[in-house]
Amino acid sequence: MYKVLLVDDEIEILDDRSQMIKELGFTCVTAQNGEHAIKFVQQEQPDVILTDMKMPNQDGFYVLKSTKEIDPHIPVIFFTGYGTVESAVEAMKLGAYDYLQKPVSPEQMEAVLNRAIDHRKLKDENDTLNTQTKETYYLENVVGKSKVIMDVAERVYRVAKSDANVLIYGESGTGKELIARSLHLLSNRKDKPFIPLDCVALPASLLESEIFGFEQGSFTGAVKSKPGMIELADGGTLFLDEIVELEPNLQAKLLRVLQEHQFRRIGGMKTINVNVRIISATNWNPEKAVEAKRLRQDLYYRLNVVPIYIPPLRERKEDIPLLVHHFINKFNPSCYIEVKGIYNDALKYLKKYDWPGNVRELQNIIEQAMSLIDQEMIGVADLPENIIENNIDFVEETCKNLNFKQARERYLIQFYKQYFDNLLKKHDGNISKVAREAGISRRTIYRLIQI
User: Fold this and answer.
1) Distance CA 7, CA 78 (A)
2) Using one digit for the tens of pLDDT, what is the confidence trace for 151-196?
């Protein structure tokens, strides 16, 4: 049962309102002044505080300020009479959750208490997720609590200290380079270079010179000698992304480096010895790549000393809340408004989506939402249309004789109408309350209900 602290200097009012709160199903404790109220907050930590604004000695503003210093998540609600509404609005700017204008009906009391408690629970959940994101996972670049991702983390941790070559595979956007960087940071080579190379970023002729380097005059334009990536990674780690895209002749040359730990620059006669760990990655299933002759079998065995499979996001949707909060923390320093979290309704939409672009797509969506947001919490209206569309049930009759664009617009209108009709009924047409629950601005509400 949730505990409400009621603060007022008039004993008759305390008794009447306390009885009303108890009849609504809450536990209610009382205090007759601000000092006694704050002592109770320190000892008991109530779920909600209801306080009169004007009291002798320490008033409601003292209760608000002191409570925020003890626990900023406790919602503080002011009682205000006629003529003090402006002061109540000022209190909300200072962090009060809401205000109730006297006289207060049981229905008004119940509604504001339920909203305040939901608000408190949401803040606590967001804090818990932030703490888990920061503390639970012992790899810098691995965020999640699902069994599959924790198995990946454990495997990374176990193999990092060895010099074994690692082949990371999984769909695009799952974070293969992040895993490679974690392997390097946890290894004994962490103070040496980590050199990443995308095997599809350059044509084969340039890629060879990037990997192996070249001597002056070895080809037109080689005006001076240049070391290759393998040489630059000496003592450290060379990360070869999309290794399957490497042409067969380059795969053969790379195999020689892995076997003999030495190579020659293009046009060079001198053999260069290297001590480098190779971490490679592909979005292919490695064995199928070998079968399709996209990856040399002998090179595969050299690269695949330790395989690490990164599961797609659709197979670990329980990690989405932690990933969202991880990205919020990541992008907050560069945002105009500090985002505190995400509303549960919006999170439900993210959990239902299949994520073809995996973690990279989720990161882009959160960054986009935070770039355009005009409030502290990400709501449904801040999500892209394709996320919303994915969650609307398909009704065949609605789609008859419509092309894709028309059907999509029809569904969006249907969603907005149903969603906001329900909220407007719930809050008796009060746009401010609808905006607060939906987690979007009043301006956005007016725009969407006029569609």
Assistant:
1) 10
2) 999 899 899 999 999 999 999 999 999 999 999 999 999 999 999 9
180 and 303 co-located in one domain: yes
Place of tokens 């006694």: 36
Distance CA 419, CA 381 (A): 11
**For residue 266, what is the DSSP state?**
B
- Work out the average pLDDT over 52-65: 86
**pLDDT tens digit string along 273-308?**
999 999 999 999 999 999 999 999 999 999 999 999
Pairing status of strand 272-273 against strand 262-263: antiparallel
Answer for the pair 433, 447: CB distance below 8 angstroms, yes or no: no
Tokens standing for residue 213? 């380097």
Cβ neighbours, 10 Å, residue 361 = 17
pTM for this prediction: 0.61
Which domain-ending residue is among 134, 160, 176?
A: 134
Same domain, 156 and 37: no
Neighbours of 12 (CB within 10 A): 8
Q: Are strands 226-227 and 213-214 parallel, antiparallel or unpaired?
A: antiparallel
Both 32 and 80 in one domain: the answer is yes
**If 0-12 CB within 10 Å is exposed, 13-18 middle and 19+ buried, where does residue 396 land?**
exposed
Report d(CA 425, CA 318) in Å as an integer: 33
Look up the domain containing 58 and give its range: 3-134
Q: Quick one: tokens of 253? A: 């040359």
Whether 159 and 260 share a structural domain: yes
Q: Are residues 127 and 153 in the same domain?
A: no
| Whether 395 and 437 share a structural domain | yes
The CA distance from 21 to 26, in Å, is 6
**Judgement on whether residues 211 and 267 belong to the same structural domain of the protein:** yes
Taken as a whole, the chain contains a residue count of: 451
Helix axis angle, 147-160 to 176-185, nearest 10°:
40
What is the residue type of 35?
E
Domain end among 259, 292, 311 = 311
Gyration radius from the chain CA atoms: 30
Residues 153 and 271 in one domain: yes
